[in-house]
């Protein structure tokens, strides 16, 4: 058991390094792109929303709103995007018996989680020191919300990644779904500002709970957040179960070239 | 030790179900040299891939206590955008091997010189095969899988490959799949014929090769 865990750790670490070199190369800023890229996304959105003067139903600084909202989206959305169709380009790695299907997903998920997290922390520090946003009121809740969101993204990523191996529809449908889920994810609104029926409907989406919970931790005294950590955790658990079942099935059937 | 128990493999092709292996039993002990013959499409490569863990059986169990190689001189597992050196480092990390310990051997054996620092995608197929062979030997496998005769590089390279594989590593197990009866006779202690999804074991290589030849003639 301990030996297996060590080997799997080695393999995932090796694949993370390989992914960093193949994705970002050794040119210009190299692996720094890992978090500079999500930072640019978040900065861009923050700038756009500031200029457009987005109305979000509270007197919060728009920067704080964009930082919490968009960082959360990046965290859960990038993992599935990197996991869908991840097996085929890496199929030759299956010739190394230590490498399993789950390692391919795990390394990509870990890399996205690291990138999004560094981006979120660095931007937070910058914005706080420039006094564009107040410091988080409750770091523990922020961390919990971040961890639950990462778990959600990881489970969804593995499920869709494995499923995409069985059906081409997954890739085709994931792109529009990811696009459409962004405005519904709570990144650009506070649930409290929505009409009652719409708020109730949108709270079925786990990612809305991610965003609301993160905002509760960041500036909870200034807003009324609507979320349930238990609901989010339950969704994650169910997704994880399906993801592992699908991964198992795919790894039994997978035929590398 | 490697032990296959009632191993079956079924593929679902567009034209329907294909039962490639229909209950294979095989035991390979430390240092055994086993040859496997069979006509085209008999499932030899599938069997090698299952033993190597590249694919999973549909049913049955494969128990391994030995570290098993990938099919020798297999070049597909390289990443073209990475240099030869990066690929070596990657494979070292996967197998928990210290890079510094093996690099001299790989440099010397692969004869790639400064090309080791170039991306693999610019390599010729011969250069790739030499690198692949060197990497296969740099990890200490207990059992080497050989799918078809390893004919890579010039006579000198082949001589060295032979020395490294069959002389310096004579205590390792080998599972060899080939059409070449004389090559198999030279390197194997026992052999089996893969026929119609089943494996028939013979005490000597000659018996297996005779049976196979007989079948091919029929």
Provide a descriptive summary of the structure in words:
The complex is a heterodimer of chains A (257) and B (218). With 257 residues, chain A is an all-alpha fold. Chain A is built from nine helices and no strands. By secondary structure, chain B is of the alpha/beta class. Helix content of chain B is 36%, strand content 28%. Chain B has seven helices and nine strands. Chain B has helices at 44-51, 84-94, 99-110, 125-138, 155-167, 181-187, 205-217, and strands at residues 2-13, 16-28, 33-37, 59-64, 68-71, 143-147, 173-177, 190-195, 198-202. Chain B has a six-stranded mixed sheet with strand order 5-6-7-3-8-9, with helices on both faces. Chain B is globular and about 50 Å long. The chains are: A mainly alpha (257), B alpha/beta (218). The interface between A and B is medium-sized, with 26 and 24 residues.
List keywords for this structure.
heterodimer, A: 257 residues, mainly alpha, globular, B: 218 residues, alpha/beta, 3-stranded antiparallel β-sheet, 7 helices, 9 strands, 36% helix
Provide the succession of SSEs of chain B: EEEHEEHHHEHEHEEH
Percent of residues in β-strands of chain A: under 5%
Query: For the residues shown, what is the average pLDDT of chain B?
Result: 89
Broad shape of chain B:
globular
**End-to-end span of chain A in angstroms?**
30 Å
What is the number of strand segments of chain B? Answer: 9
Envelope shape of chain A: globular
